[in-house]
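Quick one:
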Amino acid sequence: MVDLEKNEIRTGGEEIPLFSASAEDSKLCSVLAKEKTIIPARSECLIQGVPEASGKFRYAVTDFPSQVSQKGVLVAATLVDLKKEAIPVRVLNLDHKPKTIDKGAVIATCEPVVDIVARPQEFSESLRLPSILENLEGLNEEQRTAVKELLQEFQNLFSTSDSDVGRCNMTQHRINTGNHPPIKQYPRRLPLAKKEEAERLVKEMVDNGIIEESSGPWASPIVLVKKKDGSTRFCVDYRKLNEITIKDSYPLPRIDDTLDALNGSQWFSTLDLKSGYWQVEIQPEDKEKTAFTTGQGLWQFKVMPFGLCNAPATFERLMETVLRGLTSEACLVYLDDIIIV
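Output:
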């Protein structure tokens, strides 16, 4: 982790002070492209760089020079060993067109590091850490520390409760029913115990900003499904709505292709989005079509609910848009499940 306030880097249980380079020292920190490289549109790749001169410093932190960044190419900040013949420079092309880095071009500049000081990493018990830290078998102490540091740095990305759900504004789900008149269905009878459970779940969704009251002409019945862990899944029966919805043909990835892409991989990370569908908004004019009734009022979704026929297509399109440019060598996605290779 780069701490600009303390002017240091912390990684692998070590504290690395950053050197305030003088004008003379900064001249020997350029990195040149070893070979001509073409970076595909919206992609990242590793370019072999050659340090122009190392001087008395062995370690440095790479950064991007202004002439490269102006072309829409960014360079990841990385600790490198200047004594090596070539150093890896990770670059990202943000443009929608391929970028060419010529041989000998300055692809990075380096900020010299004075020294590397080992210091045991202390972890605060108050920090929110995912349960993955409970089982780190197979990793040595240095690797465990690196994993903990990484997850602590990005701990705000992990959901801590059922109510801790993100919201994406990159797309809105559309329910295209053409000129078909609204469909109104009556609520199904529920046993008293299930009726109380339905009311509890409705209140929970209202409190979490998932649903709101509706006054439109549409209505679908609900279904309560018991999950493996004994809890209840709240579902809406949208079969009638789906029959009149114009279908979205956006394809889902083939599972066999995904498995083939993992061939030979030894290490990979899996990510599962928290209530992924609920992170996608509904087009305002279509919210009333998601309305449901429990017998106690009429409610509609503010976000994309489960059970809509085009929900998988909307979500897969969104995920592939967000991760576009990352090839199967780096990242695979199937709806709300992501594998980082």
